[in-house]
Amino acid sequence: MRPLLGLVRACHPEPTAAVTLAAALLALPGHSAGRVLLVTATVLASQLAVGWSNDAIDAPRDAAVGRTDKPIPAGTVSRRVVAVASLGAALATVALALLSGRAAVAAIVGLVSALAYNWPLKSTVASVLPYAVSFAALPAFVVLARGARPPGWLLAAGALLGAGAHFANTLPDLADDARTGVRGLPHRLGPVGSQVVAAVLLLAATAALAFGPPGPPSWPGLAGFAGAAVVLPIGGYTASRRTGSRAAFRAVLVVALVDVVLLVLAGRTL
After folding, report:
1. Nearest to 98 by CA among 90, 89, 88, 108
2. What are the helix (H) ranges across 99-214?
Protein backbone atom coordinates (compact mmCIF):
# COMPACT_ATOMS: atom_id res chain seq x y z
CA MET A 1 0.00 0.00 0.00
CA ARG A 2 2.88 2.39 0.71
CA PRO A 3 4.03 2.74 -2.93
CA LEU A 4 0.39 3.10 -4.02
CA LEU A 5 -0.16 5.93 -1.56
CA GLY A 6 3.10 7.45 -2.78
CA LEU A 7 1.80 7.34 -6.35
CA VAL A 8 -1.38 9.09 -5.29
CA ARG A 9 0.58 11.84 -3.57
CA ALA A 10 2.98 12.17 -6.51
CA CYS A 11 0.18 12.92 -8.97
CA HIS A 12 -0.54 16.26 -7.23
CA PRO A 13 -3.99 15.03 -6.14
CA GLU A 14 -5.56 18.41 -5.32
CA PRO A 15 -5.04 20.14 -8.70
CA THR A 16 -5.61 16.84 -10.51
CA ALA A 17 -8.99 16.42 -8.82
CA ALA A 18 -9.89 20.10 -9.31
CA VAL A 19 -9.12 20.18 -13.04
CA THR A 20 -10.83 16.83 -13.65
CA LEU A 21 -13.93 17.93 -11.77
CA ALA A 22 -14.04 21.22 -13.70
CA ALA A 23 -13.81 19.31 -16.98
CA ALA A 24 -16.59 16.94 -15.92
CA LEU A 25 -18.89 19.82 -14.98
CA LEU A 26 -18.04 21.66 -18.18
CA ALA A 27 -18.89 18.52 -20.16
CA LEU A 28 -22.29 17.89 -18.56
CA PRO A 29 -24.37 20.18 -20.83
CA GLY A 30 -24.78 18.74 -24.32
CA HIS A 31 -23.06 15.40 -23.68
CA SER A 32 -24.46 11.93 -23.10
CA ALA A 33 -23.47 10.13 -19.90
CA GLY A 34 -21.00 8.00 -21.84
CA ARG A 35 -19.41 11.05 -23.47
CA VAL A 36 -19.10 12.84 -20.12
CA LEU A 37 -17.35 9.76 -18.73
CA LEU A 38 -14.99 9.63 -21.72
CA VAL A 39 -14.10 13.32 -21.47
CA THR A 40 -13.56 13.02 -17.72
CA ALA A 41 -11.38 9.92 -18.07
CA THR A 42 -9.27 11.60 -20.76
CA VAL A 43 -8.66 14.69 -18.64
CA LEU A 44 -7.93 12.58 -15.54
CA ALA A 45 -5.37 10.48 -17.42
CA SER A 46 -3.75 13.66 -18.75
CA GLN A 47 -3.55 15.20 -15.28
CA LEU A 48 -2.03 12.03 -13.86
CA ALA A 49 0.59 11.96 -16.61
CA VAL A 50 1.54 15.58 -16.00
CA GLY A 51 1.61 15.29 -12.19
CA TRP A 52 3.69 12.13 -12.15
CA SER A 53 6.04 13.51 -14.80
CA ASN A 54 6.55 16.65 -12.72
CA ASP A 55 7.53 14.71 -9.60
CA ALA A 56 9.76 12.28 -11.48
CA ILE A 57 11.66 15.08 -13.23
CA ASP A 58 11.88 17.26 -10.12
CA ALA A 59 12.98 14.43 -7.77
CA PRO A 60 16.67 15.48 -7.64
CA ARG A 61 15.72 19.12 -6.99
CA ASP A 62 13.19 18.16 -4.33
CA ALA A 63 15.80 16.03 -2.58
CA ALA A 64 18.34 18.88 -2.75
CA VAL A 65 16.04 21.26 -0.86
CA GLY A 66 14.80 18.65 1.60
CA ARG A 67 11.25 18.33 0.28
CA THR A 68 10.32 15.38 2.49
CA ASP A 69 6.68 16.21 1.84
CA LYS A 70 7.22 14.84 -1.68
CA PRO A 71 6.88 11.03 -1.92
CA ILE A 72 10.00 10.32 -4.01
CA PRO A 73 12.52 12.15 -1.76
CA ALA A 74 10.68 10.73 1.25
CA GLY A 75 11.25 7.20 -0.07
CA THR A 76 7.56 6.37 -0.26
CA VAL A 77 7.75 5.44 -3.94
CA SER A 78 10.64 5.13 -6.38
CA ARG A 79 11.35 7.62 -9.13
CA ARG A 80 11.27 4.80 -11.69
CA VAL A 81 7.76 3.71 -10.68
CA VAL A 82 6.47 7.29 -10.94
CA ALA A 83 8.12 7.76 -14.35
CA VAL A 84 6.62 4.51 -15.69
CA ALA A 85 3.21 5.50 -14.33
CA SER A 86 3.50 8.85 -16.08
CA LEU A 87 4.28 7.19 -19.40
CA GLY A 88 1.35 4.81 -19.00
CA ALA A 89 -1.03 7.67 -18.19
CA ALA A 90 0.22 9.67 -21.20
CA LEU A 91 -0.42 6.72 -23.54
CA ALA A 92 -3.86 6.23 -21.97
CA THR A 93 -4.63 9.91 -22.57
CA VAL A 94 -3.87 9.58 -26.28
CA ALA A 95 -5.88 6.36 -26.58
CA LEU A 96 -8.89 7.83 -24.80
CA ALA A 97 -8.67 11.13 -26.68
CA LEU A 98 -8.76 9.38 -30.05
CA LEU A 99 -12.20 8.01 -29.13
CA SER A 100 -13.48 11.61 -29.16
CA GLY A 101 -12.76 12.16 -32.85
CA ARG A 102 -11.38 15.54 -33.90
CA ALA A 103 -11.43 16.74 -30.29
CA ALA A 104 -8.42 14.48 -29.73
CA VAL A 105 -6.16 17.14 -31.23
CA ALA A 106 -6.99 19.58 -28.44
CA ALA A 107 -6.47 16.95 -25.72
CA ILE A 108 -3.12 15.86 -27.13
CA VAL A 109 -1.93 19.44 -27.61
CA GLY A 110 -2.85 20.18 -23.99
CA LEU A 111 -0.95 17.12 -22.76
CA VAL A 112 2.17 17.78 -24.82
CA SER A 113 2.18 21.43 -23.77
CA ALA A 114 1.91 20.56 -20.06
CA LEU A 115 4.67 17.96 -20.33
CA ALA A 116 6.84 20.54 -22.10
CA TYR A 117 6.45 22.77 -19.05
CA ASN A 118 7.85 20.04 -16.80
CA TRP A 119 10.80 19.79 -19.19
CA PRO A 120 12.37 21.85 -20.65
CA LEU A 121 10.34 25.11 -20.36
CA LYS A 122 9.95 25.31 -16.58
CA SER A 123 13.30 27.04 -16.17
CA THR A 124 12.96 29.43 -19.08
CA VAL A 125 11.33 32.78 -19.73
CA ALA A 126 8.69 30.89 -21.75
CA SER A 127 7.46 28.99 -18.68
CA VAL A 128 4.05 30.67 -18.84
CA LEU A 129 3.26 29.50 -22.38
CA PRO A 130 2.45 25.84 -21.56
CA TYR A 131 -0.02 26.95 -18.89
CA ALA A 132 -1.77 29.27 -21.34
CA VAL A 133 -1.89 26.65 -24.10
CA SER A 134 -2.98 23.75 -21.88
CA PHE A 135 -5.69 25.71 -20.07
CA ALA A 136 -7.07 26.91 -23.41
CA ALA A 137 -6.93 23.36 -24.77
CA LEU A 138 -9.07 22.01 -21.91
CA PRO A 139 -12.35 23.83 -22.74
CA ALA A 140 -11.55 23.44 -26.44
CA PHE A 141 -11.41 19.65 -25.99
CA VAL A 142 -14.67 19.56 -24.04
CA VAL A 143 -16.56 21.71 -26.57
CA LEU A 144 -15.13 19.94 -29.61
CA ALA A 145 -16.07 16.59 -28.07
CA ARG A 146 -19.74 17.59 -28.26
CA GLY A 147 -19.36 18.53 -31.94
CA ALA A 148 -19.40 22.31 -31.40
CA ARG A 149 -16.81 24.97 -32.13
CA PRO A 150 -15.19 26.66 -29.12
CA PRO A 151 -15.65 30.44 -29.26
CA GLY A 152 -12.64 32.74 -29.11
CA TRP A 153 -13.64 34.30 -25.78
CA LEU A 154 -13.66 30.88 -24.14
CA LEU A 155 -10.18 30.04 -25.41
CA ALA A 156 -8.93 33.46 -24.32
CA ALA A 157 -10.42 33.00 -20.86
CA GLY A 158 -8.80 29.58 -20.51
CA ALA A 159 -5.40 30.91 -21.62
CA LEU A 160 -5.58 33.90 -19.26
CA LEU A 161 -6.71 31.71 -16.37
CA GLY A 162 -3.87 29.27 -17.01
CA ALA A 163 -1.25 32.00 -17.26
CA GLY A 164 -2.51 33.61 -14.04
CA ALA A 165 -2.52 30.22 -12.31
CA HIS A 166 1.13 29.73 -13.28
CA PHE A 167 2.24 32.86 -11.46
CA ALA A 168 0.02 32.15 -8.45
CA ASN A 169 1.09 28.50 -8.23
CA THR A 170 4.79 29.38 -8.34
CA LEU A 171 4.69 32.01 -5.58
CA PRO A 172 5.03 29.65 -2.56
CA ASP A 173 8.02 27.84 -4.12
CA LEU A 174 10.09 30.79 -5.36
CA ALA A 175 12.74 30.44 -2.63
CA ASP A 176 13.20 26.68 -3.05
CA ASP A 177 13.24 27.03 -6.83
CA ALA A 178 15.92 29.71 -6.66
CA ARG A 179 18.16 27.40 -4.62
CA THR A 180 18.06 24.76 -7.34
CA GLY A 181 18.47 27.03 -10.34
CA VAL A 182 14.89 27.22 -11.63
CA ARG A 183 14.50 30.53 -13.48
CA GLY A 184 11.06 30.62 -15.04
CA LEU A 185 9.27 33.87 -15.81
CA PRO A 186 7.79 34.26 -12.28
CA HIS A 187 11.26 33.86 -10.76
CA ARG A 188 12.61 36.60 -13.00
CA LEU A 189 9.78 38.95 -12.03
CA GLY A 190 10.05 38.16 -8.31
CA PRO A 191 7.26 37.76 -5.75
CA VAL A 192 5.78 41.26 -6.08
CA GLY A 193 5.91 41.29 -9.86
CA SER A 194 4.42 37.81 -10.04
CA GLN A 195 1.55 38.80 -7.72
CA VAL A 196 0.75 41.81 -9.89
CA VAL A 197 0.90 39.83 -13.14
CA ALA A 198 -1.23 37.02 -11.67
CA ALA A 199 -3.83 39.53 -10.53
CA VAL A 200 -3.97 41.29 -13.93
CA LEU A 201 -4.23 38.01 -15.85
CA LEU A 202 -6.95 36.60 -13.62
CA LEU A 203 -8.93 39.84 -13.75
CA ALA A 204 -8.68 39.71 -17.54
CA ALA A 205 -9.88 36.08 -17.48
CA THR A 206 -12.83 37.12 -15.33
CA ALA A 207 -13.67 39.90 -17.79
CA ALA A 208 -13.53 37.47 -20.72
CA LEU A 209 -15.90 35.08 -18.95
CA ALA A 210 -18.25 37.86 -17.83
CA PHE A 211 -18.45 39.88 -21.03
CA GLY A 212 -17.33 37.42 -23.72
CA PRO A 213 -20.51 35.35 -24.20
CA PRO A 214 -23.06 36.84 -26.61
CA GLY A 215 -25.91 38.83 -25.16
CA PRO A 216 -26.00 40.86 -21.96
CA PRO A 217 -23.62 39.75 -19.18
CA SER A 218 -25.07 37.27 -16.71
CA TRP A 219 -25.52 38.15 -13.04
CA PRO A 220 -22.89 35.59 -11.94
CA GLY A 221 -20.49 37.06 -14.48
CA LEU A 222 -21.04 40.63 -13.31
CA ALA A 223 -20.80 39.60 -9.67
CA GLY A 224 -17.61 37.64 -10.33
CA PHE A 225 -15.98 40.52 -12.18
CA ALA A 226 -16.99 43.06 -9.54
CA GLY A 227 -15.73 40.78 -6.77
CA ALA A 228 -12.40 40.24 -8.53
CA ALA A 229 -12.00 43.98 -9.10
CA VAL A 230 -12.41 44.51 -5.33
CA VAL A 231 -10.61 41.48 -3.87
CA LEU A 232 -7.40 41.72 -5.89
CA PRO A 233 -6.51 45.35 -4.99
CA ILE A 234 -7.38 44.74 -1.32
CA GLY A 235 -5.13 41.68 -1.24
CA GLY A 236 -2.28 43.56 -2.87
CA TYR A 237 -2.65 46.55 -0.54
CA THR A 238 -2.73 44.34 2.55
CA ALA A 239 0.37 42.49 1.44
CA SER A 240 2.22 45.75 0.84
CA ARG A 241 1.41 46.95 4.37
CA ARG A 242 2.24 43.75 6.26
CA THR A 243 5.56 42.02 5.91
CA GLY A 244 5.11 38.32 5.19
CA SER A 245 1.40 38.66 4.50
CA ARG A 246 -0.08 36.11 2.11
CA ALA A 247 -3.16 38.25 1.47
CA ALA A 248 -2.27 38.90 -2.17
CA PHE A 249 -1.66 35.20 -2.80
CA ARG A 250 -4.98 34.26 -1.17
CA ALA A 251 -6.80 36.93 -3.19
CA VAL A 252 -5.36 35.51 -6.40
CA LEU A 253 -6.50 32.01 -5.40
CA VAL A 254 -10.02 33.25 -4.63
CA VAL A 255 -10.31 34.93 -8.04
CA ALA A 256 -8.91 31.82 -9.74
CA LEU A 257 -11.67 29.79 -8.07
CA VAL A 258 -14.28 32.32 -9.19
CA ASP A 259 -12.95 32.05 -12.75
CA VAL A 260 -13.24 28.26 -12.68
CA VAL A 261 -16.88 28.56 -11.53
CA LEU A 262 -17.63 31.08 -14.29
CA LEU A 263 -15.90 28.79 -16.80
CA VAL A 264 -18.15 25.89 -15.79
CA LEU A 265 -21.25 28.11 -15.95
CA ALA A 266 -20.19 29.35 -19.37
CA GLY A 267 -20.22 25.76 -20.61
CA ARG A 268 -24.00 25.73 -20.28
CA THR A 269 -24.35 28.48 -22.86
CA LEU A 270 -22.29 26.78 -25.58
Report:
1. 108
2. 104-118, 128-145, 152-170, 174-179, 185-211
Q: Which letter does DSSP use for residue 127 in this model? A: T
pLDDT of residue 212: 94
Q: What domains lie within the chain, and their CATH numbers?
A: 1-148 (1.10.357.140), 151-270 (1.20.120)
The pLDDT of residue 244: 54
Please classify residue 214 by burial: count the beta carbons closer than 10 Å to its beta carbon, then call 0-12 exposed, 13-18 middle and 19+ buried.
exposed
Query: Do residues 55 and 10 make contact, with C-beta atoms less than 8 angstroms apart?
Result: yes
pTM here is 0.92
On the question of pLDDT at 6 being above 60, the answer is yes
Average pLDDT over residues 22-49: 94
- Could you tell me the sign of the dihedral formed by the alpha carbons of 100, 138, 133, 144, in that order? positive
Please report, for residues 92, 133, 227, the alpha-carbon distance to residue 141 in angstroms, rounded to integers and kept in the order given. 16, 12, 29
Contact criterion met (CB below 8 Å) for 202 and 259 = yes
Chain centre distance of CA 103: 19
CA–CA gap between residue 135 and residue 41 (Å, rounded): 17
Residue among 164, 170, 175 nearest 252 (CA):
164
Mean pLDDT value across the chain: 91
